[in-house]
Specification:
There is one protein chain. By secondary structure, the protein is α/β, with parallel strands linked by helices. 35% of the residues lie in helices and 34% in strands. The chain has two domains: 2-125, Response regulator (Rossmann fold); 130-233, Beta Barrel (OB fold (Dihydrolipoamide Acetyltransferase, E2P)), CATH 2.40.50.1020. It has helices at 11-28, 40-45, 65-73, 88-93, 109-125, 172-179, 217-233; strands spanning 2-7, 32-37, 53-57, 80-85, 101-104, 130-135, 138-143, 147-153, 156-161, 164-169, 184-188, 191-194, 198-202, 205-208, 211-214. The protein is elongated and about 65 Å long.
């Protein structure tokens, strides 16, 4: 089941996109569930990382598509965003929020079906694993591949990820139990590190996205073994 959201304030385009998705579903044999929102504030106020693809109009009355996409990206690093617009200059800005592509109005079925096909193929190629992290005022779903490392701070964990930092109550031991099978290794008592983002070891520190994370003496040997094994397999 591919879960797709349409965020569009013009009824004409809502109907066209819905019709195109029905046609695409018929032709491709993909099972698709469609939810429609008529403004950016509607999808952001209820967003819980529940979609695989979002078709987002850029120009809307209350919250425009770019602002809505930024809010969505703050809690969901994985959803595929495709902008719908009649102005190319706005669409190009979409890459700043990780949009996969854009479709220009008026929309042709050929261009539409190509983008949807690319998006679904991208989803199928991704070996995605998620963790649901409680944060102040709600929860956030993170793709484990987008987490750089997790840091202990008092009774909280700080998830350093591609979309930002998230503070959550918890223990490093519990996080390790959840994430160790996804390529994470304990660097010291304060850090759980995603081996996929380790660029190297220098001065007894793991180099992760430009940061130097100290490796504790008791765990240094085990961490290096984990890293060597990971690099050998990838």
């Amino acid at each position: 089941m591919i879960r797709i959201a349409i965020v569009e304030d013009e009824e004409e385009y809502i109907q066209q996109l819905t019709d195109y998705l029905q046609e695409y579903q018929k032709n491709s044999k993909e099972e698709i569930a469609v939810t429609v929102y008529r403004d950016g504030d509607e999808i952001t106020s209820k967003y819980k990382s529940q979609f695989d693809i979002i078709l987002m109009d850029i120009q809307m009355k209350f919250i425009n598509g770019m602002t809505a996409a930024q809010e969505i990206r703050s809690v969901d690093s994985s959803v595929v965003i495709i902008f719908i617009t009649n102005m190319t200059q706005y669409a190009i800005q979409g890459y700043k929020v990780g949009a996969m592509d854009y479709i220009l109005k008026p929309i042709s079925y050929f261009a539409f079906s190509e983008r949807i096909n690319q998006a679904i193929n991208k989803l199928k190629k991704q070996d995605r694993h998620y963790v649901v992290v409680p944060i102040k005022g709600g929860v956030v779903r993170l793709d484990t591949a987008d987490i750089y490392y997790i840091e202990v701070q008092g009774h909280n964990l700080i998830y350093h990820a591609s979309a930002g930092e998230y503070i959550s109550p918890g223990t490093i031991s519990a996080a390790k139990k959840t994430l160790c099978s996804y390529g994470f290794s304990r660097g010291n008592k304060s850090y759980l590190i995603n081996l996929a983002h380790v660029d190297g070891i220098q001065d007894k520190c793991a180099q992760v996205k430009g940061e130097s994370l100290p490796l504790g003496r008791p765990r240094q040997s085990a961490f290096l073994q984990d890293l060597t094994k990971y690099w050998g397999e990838h």
